[in-house]
Design goal:
Hpr(Ser) kinase/phosphatase, nine-stranded mixed beta sheet, alpha+beta, seven-stranded mixed beta sheet, P-loop_NTPase
Length: 318
Amino acid sequence: MKATDFYYHLFGLRLSAPFPCPELPPAQGDRTDVTVTWGALSHPWHRPSTELRFHAEPRRILLRHDGVGSMLVCDGNRIVIDPDPAADQRVIRLFLLGSGMGAILQQRRVLTLHASAVVCGSGAVLFLGSSGVGKSTTAAAFQKRGFAMLTDDLCAVHQTREGRAYLHPGFPQIKLWPDSVRALGLTGEKAYPLHARIPKVAFGLSGPFPNGPTPIHHLVALVSTETGPPVVDRLTTLERLRVLQKHTYRRAFISGPCATKNHLNACARLAKAAPMTLFIRKKRPFRPDATVQHIIDQLHLEPDTHRELETPSRSMPG
């Protein structure tokens, strides 16, 4: 155990890093599943770009984000970061905890979904959808109703041989656009910006946070439309499979026929194991409280008041 290393747990894994990550729950001891180090990396991209670029192979992926740096993710257990000279620590952590951990989980054959999730009395409820559809906003509105937050934007689904599916908690933070902050009435809450070029802000969750795997109870596919009243529809197994494939987190990271087959099988197992409801809402105005009430009424959801939770005790990220 290095004196300069910091140890955390997220998505069912223990991570060691050479820098503090105040967003993450601390872990005791020096056992690690994922090791993060600094290192010099070369990359094949010579023209600048504001987009995330990557080169994927079956057991390794090289990521590049100009203004942040390069990241090499290997074998599901190692991440090497080569930061750009002017990169802010906060932006480096955003890169690590998003794309970096997404790649780690995929290399470990964990079904990784672009979704946010909360805990109800019967298990985890996942909100899947395209970027900007309101996954985080919906989860935050559920939290205001007393439903514990499980994870934001990235869901790590662990499956048993018996066909049961569980969701491991991510970390107690949620990222929201300014209009969502206003719609949720959070303008007086303490938040911090994620990136100089992105107006999104992050909130550290101060309430109780789940500390163990939660069985998946229901999947909700969110879609927004310009016109029309809300539509609720239960999806068939084949429709669920298509939604899960579409909303896999960083699906392009999956490389090679073996990994592609494993991903398809994992989506198929979850499509059989968990019911999914399609919820179509009007894009504007977005009323998250009304959306949440509609989902609660349709799925008969109640907060889980018996689950063991832990209260985070961390400072706001700097």
